[in-house]
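We give this protein:

***
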Amino acid sequence: MSFLNLAFPAEAALPFAQSFLGLMAAYVRPALGLGALVTLVMVFKPLILGLAQAAVLLVKPRKSLEQRILAHKFSGKMMLNRMANEYSLSQPSFAAELRNMAARD
């Protein structure tokens, strides 16, 4: 150890401080980049969601009101037929009534 190290301790610690700051910068830089990316996503979230919904509608368009009503009626008829099949052995008259209800328009 030289006399200058005792006279100027800050200059003796400078190489350690530079390596420490370089190491910290290596850890902080990706965190700042990730923070910037998260900030951009949060700012443009409505735009991103709108583009995603438009892409989904482009691939799979929404059914018309008539198609949705018909699908709902068909699922109700299928449910009544399933119930009729369940009750066909134990209560045949009730099963026949359910099938009759399913056959109506």
In short: The CA atoms of residues 32 and 95 lie 68 Å apart. The chain has five helices and no strands. The chain has a mean pLDDT of 86. The two ends are 101 Å apart (CA to CA).
